[in-house]
Amino acid sequence: MKLVKVYVTLKTSVLDAQGEAIKSAIQTMGYDHVSQVSMGKYFELRFDDYSQLDQDVDAICDELLTNPNIETYRYEIVEEK
Amino acid sequence: MKLVKVYVTLKTSVLDAQGEAIKSAIQTMGYDHVSQVSMGKYFELRFDDYSQLDQDVDAICDELLTNPNIETYRYEIVEEK
């Protein structure tokens, strides 16, 4: 069994309005050491073991989990029992 | 400068309807090796260096970034130049 952890974030060229709003909220709470906040999505996908997993994860990320125009992703594959 | 990476996921006792929908979509795309999908949120927070960062990050997660009734979080702190 393989666990794939996918992190989707906005491209740096895209304004992260949610992140800015959260930063502002954190500062309002009194934590003024925060200098930057960004918000993204996190997916965990479990797969049976098979050979072309990397290739399929790339396709799933490109076609379904991200909007390639504004988002970028990275993932890691962890072996699970 | 410290980079804090926060991962927010639903508690296992809570139905992950988005995850189920994504799993179904992935299977419809023809990738039938997928057995489970869950969806969460991912935050990156940058802080100036100071002493009680851990404590503040816990408070920010509990009070702002998560709904403690249904969500759980973990984070890691990375040193940045």
From TrEMBL, chains A, B:
Coarse class of the primary localization is cytoplasm
Q: What is its EC number?
A: 6.3.5.3
Give the first-level EC class, as a single word. Answer: ligase
What biological-process terms (Gene Ontology) are attached? 'de novo' IMP biosynthetic process
Q: Which Pfam families match?
A: PurS
Q: What pathway does the UniProt record associate with this protein?
A: Purine metabolism; IMP biosynthesis via de novo pathway; 5-amino-1-(5-phospho-D-ribosyl)imidazole from N(2)-formyl-N(1)-(5-phospho-D-ribosyl)glycinamide: step 1/2
Q: Where are the transmembrane segments?
A: none
HAMAP family reported in the protein's UniProt record: PurS
Q: Which NCBIfam families match?
A: phosphoribosylformylglycinamidine synthase subunit PurS, PRK05974.1
Q: What does this protein do?
A: Part of the phosphoribosylformylglycinamidine synthase complex involved in the purines biosynthetic pathway. Catalyzes the ATP-dependent conversion of formylglycinamide ribonucleotide (FGAR) and glutamine to yield formylglycinamidine ribonucleotide (FGAM) and glutamate. The FGAM synthase complex is composed of three subunits. PurQ produces an ammonia molecule by converting glutamine to glutamate. PurL transfers the ammonia molecule to FGAR to form FGAM in an ATP-dependent manner.
The entry's family comment says: Belongs to the PurS family.
Quote the protein name from its UniProt record.
Phosphoribosylformylglycinamidine synthase subunit PurS
User: Whose protein is this, by species?
Assistant: Companilactobacillus alimentarius DSM 20249
Q: Taxonomy-wise, where does this protein's organism fall, top ranks first?
A: Bacteria, Bacillati, Bacillota, Bacilli, Lactobacillales
Q: Which gene encodes it?
A: purS
